[in-house]
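Attaching the record inline, Q. Sequence:
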Amino acid sequence: MSRHTCTDPKHHVHDAAGFVGAVERACQERGLRLTPIRARVLGFIADAGKPLKAYDLLEQVRVGEGAGAAAPPTVYRALDFLLANGFIHKLQSVNSFVACHHPSTTQHSVPFLICDRCHSAVELEDKHVVDLLDERARVLGFVPQAQTLEVHGLCGDCAAKAA
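Structure, as predicted:
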């Protein structure tokens, strides 16, 4: 089994415009519509380099459109679309959003490593962990429908500074 462990929070998301372009192509292939507001929200998330909260996204959208122009439901609808189609992930423990490193795939579960100091989030690309949790749940008679695994601690840079 090949295992790729991501260690850079911007791994595969080299630039926001390129990432949005990849999502546009994925939308075309899947018959989805990436509206301008969805693309803008996605671009802000991809460009951030760290998890963003919905209200931070709302403020960024409002700056571009003029104060009060974007209502919270507009941003939440965009987030719902992006989540449902696997273009972003929601970090439940910090109520924030990050770009998915694999925009061409559908929604999938991945473990995240979240730094409590610098707030970076690393998508840990390890299907073995996801499959093992699913398998163990099923052995216990549990039927998993969603999986969220978030590990909090210090990233390598923050841990080195703390030492």
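The two ends are 35 Å apart (CA to CA). The beta strands are 88-91, 96-99, 112-115, 121-123, 150-153.

More tomorrow.
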